[in-house]
Write a structure and sequence with these properties.
Layout lengths: L2 H8 L4 H9 L6 E12 L2 H6 L3 H21 L3 E6 L2 E6 L8 H16 L16 E16 L4 E6 L1 H16 L3 E4 H7 L6 E9 L2 E10 L2
Amino acid sequence: MNQEEKQALRQYVPGAIADELDRNDEIISEEREVSVLFADIRGYSSISENRKAEEVFEIVNRYTETVSAVVRRHGGSVVEFNGDGMMAVFGAPRELAAKEKAAVEAGRAIVREVGEIEIDEAGPENLTLSVGVGVATGNAFVGNIRAVDRMIWSAIGNTTNRAARLEGLTRPLDVPMVIDDFTQQAAGNACEGFVQRDDVSIKGIRKTVTIHILEE
């Protein structure tokens, strides 16, 4: 494969994965401690309801460009976008020092920068996007998942599930960001302004947990 073909393919592969493939022949699949971040646009159905498809596409495109730039700037790897949702990993495929701090700082930047995206610039209210972010840290199995026509790099396990559940808590709690206790303890001063909540029930997790929320 020539350089031009490689550059064309890089447009369809997460940047961190493409960089790793440039260095090695394959991505190693293994269990590793990582910080996983989920982000999701608030009120996406309402935003989409009265807009043309191309208008929604433009809004989502601006959102994905914003959050992917934030993740890359903080050393993370975007795993996937699913409409209004995004999953990113910090600490894989390459190890990242202070991955918890990086994930929290990225989450705070996503909340701030997505909140600056105007979606009705010509309207009287200048409405902006808002987002919910969840971060969890722990072991996950990271590596390639085989599909029929390609390999999909991802992180799988309880840590990923927990991060998704924490993001889901941002709606009923009406806060922009929720992180788990492990992340908070490791991230240090990056968690300034977070408030601890004990004995919180999370769907799919039998034991109550301690979480930390960023209030607006």
